[in-house]
Structure formats: C-alpha cells, structure tokens
Write a structure and sequence with these properties.
homodimer; alpha+beta; Arc Repressor Mutant, subunit A; Chorismate lyase; 2 domains; 6-stranded antiparallel beta sheet; 3-stranded antiparallel beta sheet; 8 helices; 10 strands; DNA-binding; transcription regulation (chains A, B)
Chain lengths: ~260, ~260
DNA sequence: ACCCCGGGTTTGTCATGACAAAGTATTGAC
DNA sequence: GTCAATACTTTGTCATGACAAACCCGGGGT
C-alpha cells in the first residue's frame, strides 16, 4: 500500500513526480511546521487533488523520517485551517478549496486597499476628549477619562463610502492627521506593535439623517449600514472603539464563518 | 512553589478550597477533555481570577496523575478557545472574559430561543423548483437542477422580524411544513446528522419594497438588513443557500472575530 | 438475497523521557 | 549603584511505544 516517493495514494490524480520530500533538522523552523508547509504547498498547487486521500500518518512519518506525533501535529495544523478532513478508519482527505478557513480579523481591516479600489481618507476631526459613556464602557475606562477621538471620511474611486468615528485609549499611540490620512488605523496599530486579537462587531442598518446624507452624497433617508466594533489584544486590554456608517448602496460585509 | 490542592498559584485571588481535582479513567471521555472542562469550569466560575497564572504544566500533570502531553493538550484546547494565554518562560494566564472565542455558526432561531424572545415561524411556501442561476451557483449544481425551496416568516414576541428564503439540495433532507414551523433549519439539519462546518455570509442593507414592507409590518422604504449565506459541510459539499431580510429597526448582527 | 460478524486499516488517546528556547530573577563584577 | 553574566523556571518541540475506537470490506450463516 505504501507508495515511496509519492505523497498521495489516490487513483484519481496522476502519480506525483518522485520529488525529494525531506525535512531539515538543522533549521530552527519546527519539524511539524516544515511538514505542514510542504503539504500545504502540494495541496495549493493542486498536486494533491481535491478529495484524494493523503498517505496515512504512520507511513508518512516513516518515509519523512519523523515521529508519528510530529506528523500528526502537521496534519492537525492543516485540519484546523480547514484544508484537510480526517476520519478515523478512513484516512485524511483534501477538502474543496471553497471550504478554507480564512483569517478573520484581517478581512475587515483595510478591505479597500486590498481590493484596488483607490481608497482615500479625509480626516475630519482628531482630538483628545473625555470619554462619553458609550465609549468608556467599550474601552473599559471610567467615563470622562481622556481618549483620542477622531472622525474620518473614506472614499473609494473618488466617491464617499464610509463615515468613521473612532476612539482609542490615550497613551496607546499618538496619531497625527497626515499619517491617519495615508494609512488605515489597523496598519498604524500593527506598525506600533499593537496586535488586535479579538473583536466584537455589531452590524445594523438605519436611514441616513440629513447631515449624514450630505457628507456621504446620498439622499436623506437612504439606507446606511452601521457597524460598531471594539477590539482587544491577547490579554484583554481594549484597543479601539469604532462606530462607522457605510453607504448600503456601495458596500456590504462579507464574512466567513466556521464551526469548531 | 507548588501549592497542593489548589489550581492557581496566584497572590491575587484567595486560595481555592482543596477540592478533589481528579480524572475518571473509566469514563469514555478523553482525559485531556476532562481536564480542560474542569479548568474551564473553574475559570468561568471565577475561581481562577482573571490575570492570575495557572499552575505550570509539569506540576499540574503530576498532581492530576496524567502525563504532561495530556495536560498540554487540555491547556492548548483552552488557549485555542481564547480563555488562556501562554508565554514561554512565564506561564499560562487567564485572559479577560471579554476575549472569549464564541460559537459562530448558529442560526437565528437558536439565537432567539437562547434569548427567550419567543420565536415563531410561519412557512409561506415550500416546494421543489428548478434552481435559478444564483442559487445554482451557490449550491454548485447545474442551473435547473431541482432544489427544495422554501420561504419563512419569523416572528419574535409576536412581531414579524425576518423574511427568509432558502434553498437546499434535494436528497439532503425532506422537509415538511410542520417541522419547519416548529424548529430552526439548522436544528433540523443537525438532527439529520448534517453538520454545517463553514459558511460565507454577505450582509448589506436596502430599502423595503411595498410588498416586503407589508409582510414585515414596516413602512415602505424602511431600512432592511439583507443577509445571504451559503453553508458547506466539512468535505466542501454545499448544504444550504439562504437569502434573508431583517427589519433593521428590530435586529442587528453581532459578530465575534478573532485573529489566528 | 440479506444480515451479522470478524479482520484489517487508520486515526484517536495516552505515557515516558529528553532536550531546546525564551523569559525572569539572582548574583557577581566593576 | 548599575550593568552584565548566570541560574532557574516554564513552555516548546520531538521520539518511541502502546492500546483503543471507528470505519471498510468481505466471508459465512441464515
């Protein structure tokens, strides 16, 4: 049943070339990660066809010259990322590419800049104010504590798209208008070594007020998407509160959910 | 440094009672899961204070009478769920409760029943039709393939809340109106052993048409939240396509995102 | 023809032992 | 007193070995 030099035991895909599949024990990169990367590469390049079965753990481990736990961990890593599915007594299969688990916090960072929609940001306001009740609760500080508050208008393709209000704790990061106009907030945070780990968002909708409609170039009463978000780092420290308005005619949220 | 009978080595929280912390080796429940559940319980009950450090792996393993890999796996399980944070050379800490990774793939009905909002469902339509282009693409079948199509109106507290259109592949499950009126779609799927694993959703907003407004008891032009979703099982088979309308005045989406 | 049972395959769980790497605290020299 | 080197603690990685549980398939009995 073993098939030396070939990672797959499939009768669907043609036999893979007998490439060298080996690990580098002098590398500081963990063995399990080397194995996982190699497998992922093969899958993404389509060398292991969708639906075909991977070689079983024991044989794979022996052939690569690593222990079974290491192999297991590599496979587990890809299972958690949604690339593989395992069934006891059956084997490990490559799942359909549609079912890949996505990164979830990155999808909503600066979705525009990634989509080549020529984003532009106008900073309408930027100052330090005492936190209003809602902001204070979200950021877990006492009401009235100074926070950095700013308001931005984001364009895409030279059309207004979103009106964004944000608050961050003072001391976390000092922002200036030109930086804020040139980069997304999350990019600036990351650059300062601040890594948002978890966020809760609430997405709703309502009609635009006259003032909002004017700024966003919509008619009064037009549908707007509302989004409020609070982000925390790994230790639970609140990093950011945001209350945003999007033109429903030009924007929608796309989410990828996964169970488990 | 060890503190027998007490899971925490914290100088912040009062010493926990010396409760029996043991595992049941006769149980079919895996040991690592027993340990993880026990830890989770202690954390959720606040017996292990936020920010305090857990006893280290080696000692904990010895005291529970299990091996270190088993203990590690239990802790890892909670780390992946966002309850614990580990740092090499430091230890394992309990993170702020706000930073908990939630279950993400739930249905509206589940949400409502959990919130005790007295959900009720009216089945407006249920039949097998040839798949229109949009549905066919989402479910990955040829256009015109028969699919089960149904339309439901969901109430909460005796008020209309959402108008839901769904399509599922025929052969997956035979639905009947009374079952569909009594239970959520996802509950029926689960009961048939069908487990949605991944889903993509698009959330937007638009104004209600006259017909939609009438059904949902809104004024014409009122803001509605739109949500379209496709769900797949672990092997990448499409399970469900849904196109839903929610009254923005009564409903919003709450999401929990996490990086990693 | 159908059903049950057993053997083979494959993943799931667990123990033991060992060393490496990172972070913290202590100690020593200047 | 301050700074750097060292020791210690704690998690990270990896190997080996063993048994259990679930699944698939084919053979034999009814």
């Amino acid at each position: 049943m073993t098939n030396p030099g070939c990672l797959v035991t499939s009768d669907l895909s043609p036999p893979s070339p007998a490439r060298a599949v080996e690990v580098d024990r002098t590398s500081p990169i963990p063995l399990y990660f080397q194995v996982a990367s190699r497998l992922q590469e093969l899958i993404e390049q389509g060398e292991i066809g969708v639906g075909s079965r991977i070689e079983n753990e024991v044989d794979l481990a022996e052939r690569l010259g690593v222990s079974r736990p290491t192999t297991r961990r590599a496979i587990q890593y890809l299972v958690e990322r949604g690339m593989l599915v395992r069934k006891r007594g059956v084997g490990t299969q490559v799942v359909h590419p549609k079912v890949r688990r996505p990164v979830q916090l990155t999808s909503l960072y600066d979705d525009l800049s990634a989509a080549a929609r020529y984003p532009r940001t106008e900073v309408l306001d930027l100052r330090v104010v005492p936190a209003p009740a809602e902001v204070a609760e979200a950021l877990q500080v006492a009401p009235g504590t100074p926070v950095t508050w700013f308001e931005r208008l984001r364009y895409a393709n030279d059309e207004p798209l979103a009106l964004m209000h944000n608050a961050i704790p003072t001391g976390l990061l000092t922002l200036d208008r030109t930086e804020l106009a040139k980069h997304g907030l999350y990019e600036l945070l990351r650059r300062a070594g601040i890594v948002p780990q978890v966020a809760t968002q609430t997405i709703g909708a309502r009609a635009a007020t006259a003032a909002e409609a004017r700024v966003l170039n919509e008619k009064r009463g037009a549908s707007l998407l509302t989004m409020t978000r609070t982000a925390w780092d790994a230790t639970g420290k609140a990093l950011e509160y945001g209350s945003h308005l999007y033109r429903a005619s030009r924007y929608s949220f796309e989410l990828n959910l996964s169970a488990g």
